[in-house]
Amino acid sequence: MPSLSLSLTTPFLLLVFCLIGLLLAADDVCPGGSHLRAPDTRLNLPTGSVVGNCPTEAIPLVMAEDDKYGNKMVISLTPRLYDYVLNNVREHEILRQLREETAISQIQVSPDQAQLLAMLVEILGAERCIEVGVYTGYSSLAVALVLPESGRLVACDKDSNSLEVAKRYYDLAGVSHKVTVKHGLAAESLMSMIQNGEESSYDFAFLDADKAMYQEYFELLLRLVRVGGVIVIDNVLWHGWVADPMVDEARTINIRNFNKKLMDDKRVSISMVSIGDGMTICRKR
Ligand SMILES: C[S@@+](CC[C@H](N)C(=O)[O-])C[C@H]1O[C@@H](n2cnc3c(N)ncnc32)[C@H](O)[C@@H]1O
After folding, report:
1. C-alpha separations of 117 from 60, 100, 138, 205, 280 in Å
2. Which residues have any ligand 1 atom within 6 Å of their CB?
3. Which end of the chain is less crowded, N or C, counting CB atoms within 10 A of the terminal residue's CB?
4. Membrane-crossing residues (predicted)?
5. What local confidence, expressed as pLDDT, does residue 14 receive?
6. pLDDT at 104
């Protein structure tokens, strides 16, 4: 009898195991029905590697090299993922036109950066803003567009040709009345604002001009911005070179030193964000 019950139950058990196996496998099937491999989280994997359990073109994950962060992984942009980010930016029609006219220069902030600046201005409820390094006005227009009618943006740049383009776009967007353009060396413009009694009267500042002067601009902006106000500094990752000890080019060293000083600067709270070429958001204490 025992041998009869064994011979009846064995095929039944096999069938159950097969069904369980099929169910488990079905959970792991990728959209293309492809085979599964263990996840691999290194950066720059070749085409055909996997994310989670599914093949992909490249793995957008980076692991901290420094052991003290416990192999913390963060998402990294790929061209496809960056397109996705850009497709999720709400860009004003006039900003789009300006970007398309001047994009060749590659020196203006990206649409996702401009949107972040505008968002910070809105969160702050900022009314009085400064921009150091206007170029043709992409970032300043993004800020001016979200300022209230009573708001004011002081836009500083030394290049008159660029400022003419910026002014054309402020007009087109109907925000010229909110923007005061200061043509000249930015340090002199900021100093004259201080001498004019405007210390601690601004809510928001964006710094995006000559890197050699960052520390000097920062000191002047810190005087002009009120406690609780925000200063955003662009290009703090400087093409990624700040983290490369082999790069000893002057501007990289300047930004590296600036970042180091800011890290120790108790006058501000800071947050370095890896958006665009890197931005640090500082809140005056
Ligand atoms: C990176 S661009 C600014 C881009 C702009 N924020 C945007 O997103 O469209 C830098 C600008 O800083 C200006 N600049 C450089 N040195 C300056 C200085 N010493 N004083 C005033 N402007 C300066 C340049 O003329 C240039 O237009």
Report:
1. 25, 20, 11, 10, 11
2. 107-109, 133-136, 138-139, 156-159, 162, 185-186, 208-210
3. N
4. none
5. 47
6. 85
